From TrEMBL:
<keyword id="KW-0812">Transmembrane</keyword>
<dbReference type="InterPro" id="IPR009644">
    <property type="entry name" value="FKTN/MNN4/W02B3.4-1"/>
</dbReference>
<feature type="signal peptide">
    <location>
        <begin position="1"/>
        <end position="21"/>
    </location>
</feature>
<dbReference type="GO" id="GO:0009100">
    <property type="term" value="P:glycoprotein metabolic process"/>
</dbReference>
<dbReference type="Pfam" id="PF04991">
    <property type="entry name" value="LicD"/>
</dbReference>
<protein>
    <recommendedName>
        <fullName>LicD/FKTN/FKRP nucleotidyltransferase domain-containing protein</fullName>
    </recommendedName>
</protein>
<keyword id="KW-1133">Transmembrane helix</keyword>
<feature type="region of interest" description="Disordered">
    <location>
        <begin position="281"/>
        <end position="345"/>
    </location>
</feature>
<keyword id="KW-0472">Membrane</keyword>
<keyword id="KW-0732">Signal</keyword>
<feature type="domain" description="LicD/FKTN/FKRP nucleotidyltransferase">
    <location>
        <begin position="95"/>
        <end position="200"/>
    </location>
</feature>
<dbReference type="InterPro" id="IPR007074">
    <property type="entry name" value="LicD/FKTN/FKRP_NTP_transf"/>
</dbReference>
<dbReference type="GO" id="GO:0016020">
    <property type="term" value="C:membrane"/>
</dbReference>
<feature type="domain" description="LicD/FKTN/FKRP nucleotidyltransferase">
    <location>
        <begin position="211"/>
        <end position="249"/>
    </location>
</feature>
Length: 345
């Protein structure tokens, strides 16, 4: 989930006060020379060129789809359904192929609460070891996995896409911190997969990092604990609580109101609050109104254009008629003149 991705940068902000779209803490920009600005621009262009995974947009919502399979923002229901199917298919595939993987970031936090995803989450996160990542790149890249739910109702295809930059374990320009994705080819939603590598075994042995600077000690990761997530066998790091507190602070394990949901002690579920339901309803209504207004305007514009076209057509018809009339009169006059001339003979 998004705040997982940015946790390092957001660590100083209060997690619960920040919205997902919260701007990062900004220092006053230093005045830049023309050359510096140009260099910065070039860097951005290079970065965009280097980026392997593409999303349809940079906003909170659009950043959670793969551009190739995106056909529009999905409903809450479709997202929920997709994420459940997606993680089940993913965990099955990894287990069947003897690939080690575990839950991470917001997905791990969801598991901590009730063994389920956080209902407001837009993407899911897992991690793998560097060795597994290498195997994914060598053997399983571009695998298409068909998934049929046990009741036979849900059928989906998932693409495992491995970033060619996996061989580079340093962050670099930051454009390729996601190592692989498990993508729903129906709507573009995905699971972000990141690999952990011991980048400095000589100076920092036993320290595992991802390209987004999350750090873990071997003893906090292993031995992994086998558990159940969304009804499927899954693994979590040994010191999951320590990892969660490091990433999200104590609050994430205590506060029971978050993102328009509140924790129900009895059912052990995150339930959408009435305020959130009302807010979403209002937003949906406003969207419909806006779309209707836009459609109406388009219709009126089209009608006006048609009217103008009709007027123009009439005008040009009139001009043509006038011209014809004039020509006729002129021809008439010419003929009568000729006749006059002939008559004088
Ligand atoms: C995975 O496959 C895609 C598509 O063929 C390719 O562009 C990419 O470089 C591959 N990744 C790796 C790690 O080889």
């Amino acid at each position: 989930m998004k705040f997982g991705r940015y946790a390092a940068t957001l660590a100083s902000l209060s997690l619960f006060a920040s919205t997902l779209a919260a701007p990062l803490v900004q220092k006053a920009p230093l005045p830049q020379t023309k050359e510096q600005k140009e260099a910065e621009r070039q860097k951005q262009i290079e970065r965009a060129k280097n980026k392997y995974f593409h999303e349809p947009g940079g906003t909170h919502q659009l950043g959670h789809y793969d551009a190739r399979y995106f056909h529009g923002v999905v409903s809450d229901e479709e997202r929920t359904d997709t994420q459940l199917t997606m993680i089940r298919a993913y965990l099955d595939f990894f287990r069947e192929n003897g690939l080690d993987t575990w839950l991470a970031h917001g997905t791990l936090l969801g598991w901590w609460w009730n063994g389920k995803r956080l209902p407001w989450d837009w993407d899911m996160d897992t991690q793998v070891s560097g060795a597994t990542l290498a195997r994914l790149g060598e053997k399983h890249n571009q695998t298409m996995t068909e998934y049929v739910s046990t009741d036979g109702v849900t059928k989906r295809k998932f693409l495992l896409d491995v970033n060619p930059w996996i061989w580079e374990r340093e962050r670099g320009d930051g454009a390729n911190i996601i190592d692989a994705r498990w993508i729903d080819t129906q709507n573009g939603l995905f699971i972000d997969i990141t690999g952990l590598s011991e980048t400095h075994p000589d100076t920092k042995p036993g320290v595992w990092v991802c390209k987004n600077y999350h750090r873990y000690n071997t003893a906090d990761l292993y031995p992994m604990r086998e558990t159940v997530f969304e009804g499927v066998v899954a693994k979590v790091p040994y010191a999951y609580d320590k990892i969660l507190v490091q990433e999200y602070k104590e609050k994430a394990l205590v506060v029971t109101d978050f993102e328009g949901h509140s924790w129900n002690m009895n059912s052990k579920e995150w339930i959408k609050t009435q305020a959130q339901i009302d807010k979403e309803k209002k937003e949906a209504e406003e969207k419909v109104k806006k779309e209707a207004a836009a459609a109406e305007k388009k219709k009126q514009d089209a009608e006006r254009k048609e009217l103008e076209k009709g007027k123009k057509r009439q005008e040009s018809q009139k001009k043509y008629d006038d011209d014809q009339q004039k020509k006729k009169v002129e021809a008439e006059q010419k003929r009568s003149k000729q006749e006059e001339g002939e008559g004088q003979d």
